[in-house]
Amino acid sequence: MRLLLLLLAFCALPAQAQLPLKPWAGGATPTLELASLDGQPQRLEDYRGRVVLVNFWATWCAPCLEEMPSIEKLRRSLDAQRFTVLAVNVGEGRPAASAFAEKMGLGFTFLLDREMKTSRAWGARVLPATFIVDPAGKVRYSYYGAIDWSRPDVRAAIRELVVE
Fold first, then answer.
1. Cβ-proximal residues to 152 (8 Å cutoff; 6+ apart), any chain
2. What ranges do the domains of the chain cover?
3. How far apart (Å, rounded) are the C-alpha atoms in residues 87 and 43?
4. Mean pLDDT of all residues belonging to the chain
């Protein structure tokens, strides 16, 4: 319950779009094994060789929804063989997440963390929370709050990992 209240409080704050991506200092990359909207199991290890943007979000989080179009724009601008997006829905069920994904027309993979175990393991105590994982499977950057993923500095940091 405390986690949910903290998530709700943070989502009410304005976007911190001026802050840069923060280099990851959280140690080893947490495990990520969740089902997609179609029920297929997805593991972060399955994406080795790609840069992965892992975004924790919820349909009730306005800043989460605001940044989704810029995540999609970033995804479309990068090589699909080398970059992917995993959007982890926190605490909601398949119907809510599916309806949102369909309505927004986003082309990335949506995962379900209904029990919030994965979001806790990743330290996603506020939403949105985003982590950039390099092709070797190591978290390189994190960002808490909404950000414009089309910003030149953000794109440059991710593009650098994509071409490594």
1. none
2. 2-163
3. 13
4. 89
